[in-house]
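Handoff note, outgoing to incoming analyst
You'll be picking up this chain. Sequence as last confirmed:
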Amino acid sequence: MVAGSFLHVLSDSRDIAATDDAQQVKVSIVIPAYKAETTIEDTIAALASQTFHAFEVIVVDDASPDSTGERACRALRQSGLRHVVVRLVKNAGPSRARNAGVSLASGEYIAFQDADDTWMPEKLARQVELMDSHPEVTLCGCQADLVAANGAVIGPLFTRLPVFQTMGWRRLLSNAFIQTSCALVRRADLGTQPFDPTLRIAEDRDLWIRLASNGVTALLQEVLVRKAELPTSFMSTNTMLIALDTKRMVDYHVSAMRDYMNWQERRLIYGSLHSSIGKGLAPHSGHYLRGVLHLLMAIGMGYNMTDNMRFLILSNPAVRRVRHRLGLHRANAG
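Most recent structure output, in case you need it:
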């Protein structure tokens, strides 16, 4: 079945569900998926465990060359969840995939989820309760555990941040404390094309900053998401985009909000930005020197000087080779 010239509908249970279930859709969950055949079924299984049930699932297969779309259809049919699965005709990137999902949404709220992340059972219930009680909130996030490929917890998404922030946009410029899979927003605040399609990376943070500038940002403190930190993720395999798209996005917002920030705040924002770019580039041999430059700029701005200096030293190719050999030596000795 075809819906427009840019996507194909693979499965749509919403008309059937509407006749079987009088419960109105409160939340639309938008999941962009690309080459996610190994994770999409676990992601959907976690949705089926939600204690809040008035939701629909919208999976947008971004022209995956694998069986992502088919596995999503099978998992959603087996779960009995109200859903629609569409496949884009050609790969378009996260922004356009999410925009396609938003255009199909019918819920009062929209939640976004990446295809390799999982939710705790109370995630939607807790966020919907907060948003219903606080109409001034335009963006709701939550705590998340950052999880390595082997399942080990790396650490929390954020530390020591308040539940409510009236100037959340300012902190978001230097600290990406709301990840895509943690966000719940109001559909009325989005329009139909909320994500900037010219951004291949940081498109979510760009939207969060815009939403936070129009209301209060809320942050539930309990862990409600397990966020996968995988070496095969889009962020990990497109490090140069951090230097290009993220900087362009930050430059735009700093310029737009310049009258509301002092020079110390701007220095913090750009120190954080250069640190992030440097840490993304320095471990890659082809980008090491460029990464070093950004780390030195962060250090020069006084941003996390000890941490950035340590990263600069440990990412040196010669140091990495020595550490690798020592690691092999210890493994062989064991």
